[in-house]
Structure formats: C-alpha cells, structure tokens
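Exam prep: given the inputs below (a chain plus zinc ion), describe the expected output before reading on.
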Amino acid sequence: MSHAHPDHYQGAARFNVPVHALPETTAEIVAMGDKTDLPTGTPIPLAGMTPTVEITPGTEVIDGIPFEFEKVTGGEIHTTLVIKLSEQGVLVAQDVVYAHTHLWFLDKDFDGWQANIDRFAAETEYDTILPGHGEPTDPAVWAELTDYVNAGRELLGDDGDAYKKAITARYPAYRGVALIDVANAYMFGPKD
Ligand SMILES: [Zn+2]
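Solution:
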C-alpha cells in the first residue's frame, strides 16, 4: 500500500493476502476507520484493509531482485512509498507521478511535488516509470509534470469551477477530469 488515499486501499481485502505499508500510512488508514463503497453504500470494514506488515525503508531482496523501498514526503500526500527496481530500471513512483492525468492538488503542496519531481528526474537510470494514475511512462513525464504543477500553482485560486475550466482547457487530452470534481468538492464544498 503506497499511501493512505482510499482509491489505493479500499479494495485490499479482495486480494486476501498480507498487506504491507509504511507505519505512517497504516496509522492514517486506521485513523480514518471504516469506509463505505460509493455509490452502492456497501460497508468496507477497516479490518479487511488495514496493513499488517510494516515496511522499513531500505533494500530487500525478493526472489533475487533488489527492491528499494523509499519513503517520500510532500506533494500529492504527506507520506508515500516509492519502490525502485534499479537492476530493471523500473521506478514504481505511485502518486508522485500521474501520466497524462489531472493531478490531485488537495494539499496544494506545489513546491513539495516539484521537489519530488526534481529528485526523481535526476535519477536517470530509471527508464520505465509506473505512475499511480495513468499508463506506464518514461522520463519525459518529469517535464510534463513540472509543466502541470506550474499550471496548478498559477490557476488554482478560490473558485473550483473556474479552475476546472482553466486546467482542462490547458490539458484537453488529460484523463481523470472527475478527480478535479472530487478535489473541488473537498476544497470548495460540494455542488448540487
Ligand atoms: Zn491516487
């Protein structure tokens, strides 16, 4: 489990396997408690989606392959897990990277997100980047993300509808417009 956003953990029980996470993420999931599936209203008990195995940052060899677990702070959420498979050149960036998908700016931490972009862009050994949202991508995504974070910093004011109009006009081909609606509801109150 990379981070404590419900779209990344509510389905965990379906896999019926041990769930691993950083302790900060587990604590936050526990603090948020039981959830409810939308729109069906089906309860999602906390017990089924609580991580039971603690991930310690550092390198662990699984089936002969080194996995480097890294705790990343700021940006999309205050704490997230990034996994590096350096021998394969694969960066499991999770929600540090959205590929051609509208970013989730609820925390408005543009500088934190940019710092993470700059940090991973400098690690040029990763040619395959697995985003939390969108298709697998490559290092071209770092410049695209920088552009989008700058646009968010410039355009996100105090009017959710105006922001949605402006950001979708600038990135008409990007997916996940519904993410803007959900974030707007949190930031500016739900619209009817
Ligand atoms: Zn996400």
